[in-house]
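Intended use. Records like the one below are meant for learning the mapping from a protein sequence to its folded structure. Do not use them to infer anything beyond what is encoded.
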Amino acid sequence: MKNIFSKPILVVISVVLLAVGCGTNRKNDGVRLTVISTIFPGYDFSRALTKDIAGIDLKMLLKPGGESHSYEPSPQDIIDIENADVFIYVGGESDAWVDDLLTGIDAKKLRTVKLMDLVSVKEEELTSGMQDEERKEGKDEEPSEIEYDEHVWTSPVNAMKIVNGINDVLVEIDPENAESYRKNADEYIKELKSLDENFKKITSEGNRKKLIFGDRFPFRYFADEYGLVYDAAFPGCSTETEASAKTIATLIDEVKQEKIPVVFYIEFSNQKIADTIKEASNTQTRLFHSTHNISKADWEKGVTYIDLMKANAEVLKEAVR
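Structure written out for the chain above:
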């Protein structure tokens, strides 16, 4: 994946840091802790951990419905991060701006949680059908450096590790509420274990192991956790949206040859590739949600990571039957 972090944003960060560098970390009345996450999983995990604890101000930088791979922080975002107590981010190339920010701000009390540091990371993988920005058709060059899949939360097992990592920080900086944080963590881990057990049951009872995505594939950790194999139009962090004729033909052939019943697409997709495969192979299309971000409508409904993963479990049953 190409680094989307632009020079103008570096300038914005520098200007904002000059403006706020001499300020103090002020809280609004009644706010005990401010927790900021760049994306939905960190926000939603924190929401579960801080349930029923007064004075917690939770924020998500990425707007509902926004594309995470092209997110750039606003001046207000930068100020909010400096004034936060806990800042949760993924890491990897799409969060390159975070490193520049953290080296420049004067926030002695800010605790950071980097999701990719809480689990064993895996290299992003190119399968036979995938099209990649770094390797165009007709060329055999390998990407110049290793790229790691950033979507670590897509495995419920990893989600448990992430939840425990966030909780450790909350307990440390707010010991007065330590018992409540631990209680909430225990309850939430039970829900994640239930998800994990359900996915294990679905995949063990299924008749096939292969998934086809007419889209990006941000589910490396999920697939590896449950012994699934896959092919897709693009790797998980690709910014491409238009697949080549060769890529589409390869995926259509796989669906036909292996009688794949479901072709998946991900949230906020235009579904064009999945629909093309569907029309050519007489199969069905279904949404498989990466939980990277949610729509404005789902945000207003209070949809959670657990809700989205339960919906994934239902469509997975169709795919492996």
